[in-house]
Amino acid sequence: MKKLLEILRSQGRHWVGDGFPVRSLFGYNGDAPAVSPFLLFDYAGPHLFEPAGRPRGVGSHPHRGFETVTIVYDGEVSHKDSTGGGGTIGPGDVQWMTAAGGIIHEEFHSEGFTKTGGPFRMVQLWVNLPAKDKMSPPHYQAIKSADIPAVDLTGGKARIIAGDFAGTKGPATTFTPVNLWDIRLEAGADVELPLPEGHNAMIAILSGHVTIGGKAVGEAEIARFSSDGAGARVRTDGDSLLLVMTGEPIDEPVVGYGPFVMNSETEIRQAIDDFNSGRFARVAA
Fold first, then answer.
1. Whole-angstrom Cα distance, residue 12 to residue 204?
2. How far apart are CA 278 and CA 174, in angstroms?
3. 93 three-class SS
4. What is the band of 285 on the pLDDT scale with cuts at 50, 70, 90?
5. pTM to 2 decimals?
6. Three-class SS of residue 266?
7. How confident is the model at residue 176 (pLDDT cuts 50, 70, 90)?
8. 209-223 pLDDT, tens per residue?
9. How far, in Å, CA of 180 to CA of 171, rounded?
10. Which element (helix H / strand E) includes 212?
11. Phi, psi dihedrals of residue 117, rounded to the nearest 5°
12. Are 14 and 224 in contact (CB under 8 A)?
């Protein structure tokens, strides 16, 4: 079994734009090798939005050197980017955006959700790219809930977004070996999750309360495990929603500045210069 090393917690909530009330559970300015290949985990919500006359969200902004993965649990998010990719995702849907060599995108509540308001909850995860792929062409994957396979567990169900779970493969294409499993467990469930040997692994508790390795883990907390060993046992104290992340570590320097994550200060300066000089494509009006 993997060893539980620590519980990651947010130090507070902040707004990203006016549409995403976020708790950041880890970021690349912390112990980057410990969470590699992941860089950042933002948990937006749960939050109740009133109806509005204009969509709330974040306007056009750049990224380079990594991927963003957005999973919606409640509400709707509309995305548009400089590759021409985009669309609206709702509960259970995922957008996997590869910024790579450079992308500009915007994210707002959908027009429908803006008009009706309602409960909102989503996760955005940043996934690093190896140096050889950081300047690849940007790309966008829209993954609908109906296309995500599910595996029945004793006392629950796992949706396989990326990677493999007991032979069931997820639809997301990744540059390095990554597992991303969306898991719902009933109260009193006792399951062993097949976290792979050699992968950095984390389990985010989005709602509910669980016990892992004799330690209690609650809402908006992440259990981080050792890379050695395989598997982890989870016992639930109530109905719980989990997001499991495992990945093969990328053993390369991580140098980041806001929306750019590269391998050196020189590459960061180049990214800033390229953006300021208009060498990133723009989002079409």
1. 16
2. 28
3. coil
4. low
5. 0.96
6. helix
7. very high
8. 999 989 999 999 999
9. 11
10. strand 209-212
11. 65, -175
12. no
